[in-house]
Write a structure and sequence with these properties.
The protein is built from nine helices and 13 strands. Helix 3 links the parallel strand 7 and strand 8. The longest helix has 12 residues.
Amino acid sequence: MGRSRRRTADEDVVVATVDGGTAELRPDPDRRRGFTLRIDGAPQSYVDLDDPSHLDFAYQRRLGHLVDLLAPPGQPVRVVHLGGGALTMARYVAATRPRSTQQVMEIDAPLVRLVREHLPLDPGWRVRVRGGDAREGLAKVPDGWADLVIADVFRGARTPAHLTSAEFVAEAARALRPGGWYAANLADGPPLSFLRGQIATVHTVFERLALTAEPAVLRGKRFGNAVLLAADGALPVAELTRRAATDPQSARVEQGQVLLDLTGGAAPVTDATAADSPAPPPAVFRDR
């Protein structure tokens, strides 16, 4: 793995060639041990080594809300992370729910080595990072093992097609305990064709859905992230709505028939019809 350091704004930036492109670990001038991971210029993760409970990206805070509401405060849980990045969410779970057991599937081995070297995990955390494809790794998780499966997989800035199908979602459901939750970080922009298809797809597997996103994204006004939560049992929609509304980057939560209507009749995605998520416009990452 090629690696170098350069000086930017009087701080060290670690630059490395990984399987996904050029990775950069950029120090945060406002937090002593905070770092942003970028791959080919696209922000992927943020980590504060001094405070793993700090979630800088809005979509990660939305995932953090789900971790908070999954079980009583501090209770250990079992989580499968599909996509590792800088292991931000695994760190959050470990910090807020000590003794939790976690599995992370990350295909980019050079990226994992970079993160382990420069953003090391606490050796006391029960976090196992597995190399290889996310779907192949998910297939090895025992039936009913997980309380939560988080799908947050991007190759560059796009989710690979084979991680968007009903067959993939069914595999996630198999790995969940009864009452467990499936969460997916979805990125889309106008006309929201990908997001509509994903809602329809996940609903073929799970009865209850809730979607959290900024209003402008839901209206198809701009490209952005939406976090889809799914389960067969009741979801804490009222508390999720409150947290989304009071977040520094406030969002709406849609559920029920309103959410299903958002699909606009989109067909569920299968392995035979799946395609990568859309590429974000270049302006999305400008000045970030």
